[in-house]
User: What shape does this take?
Amino acid sequence: MPGKTYDILLAEGAAELREAGIDTARLEARWLLAHVAGCQSADLIARGGDPVSDETISAFSDVIARRVTREPLQHILGTTEFYGLDFLSDARALIPRPDSEIVVEAALAHIPEGQPVFVADLGTGSGCLLSAILAHRPEASGEGVEASPEAAALARENLSRLGLSDRASVHDGPWSGWQKWNQADLIISNPPYIVSEEMAGLMPEVRDHDPAAALDGGADGLDAYREIVRLGAAAMKPGAWLVFEIGYDQKESVSGLLEMAGFEAISCLNDLGGNDRAIVAQRPVV
Assistant: This one.
């Protein structure tokens, strides 16, 4: 009796994911099947009527079961794409997400091409922001600052696999103890900004699998911004730029912190969904 075909297996997996409340069930099932089959998702069209090996059926069952528990797809696949680059992704750091790409674009707009600028990424996590910037500014160098040893290790792995280790390093420790504030031409950060009491209501993929320390921004979500703005105002070199990722409702609050600290040229950019997502400000030249 013929075994299951790829089409049947895909349909069964998609049904399980749909039952678990995953909106993009068929798309994710296709990615997961391609992952365990060792092929591209487009290849599954040609293989649709072919029988699937018992080994692949078992592996597919395992990854579907993991996704049903709302383990992030990116953790199961082990990688994710961000700004055209492929990053390792696991529970050590936040998953790079498309909304953050506008933060990279905001930073690149203030880094002249062909200039040997120094860029810092505070709370670098996976290293995705720093890596994307350096990949598009080959004359630049940079340093990620990361308090979590596990996340710092992941950032180093990503910088290495992207061929950027010769232009980037990772500082182990909090940004409060980092000593290069006055050397950076641009500082970028996606700090924790979720209001503490809202943590429990996050999607399970985020709440249960992203590091809480990288999410929880305190009672009003602004603790990290206050600290970075205070440190930056005291130590950043004149004319240097500060670029933040922010929550959709934090434009006025973060802009106010920057203005009170004396930063200038404050502007905000929206993500693809039209939400406020990036704030840019400059330390006064004089």
Remarks:
- Strands lie at 79-82, 85-88, 118-122, 141-146, 168-172, 186-189, 241-245, 264-270, 276-282.
- Residues 35 and 220 are 40 Å apart (CA to CA).
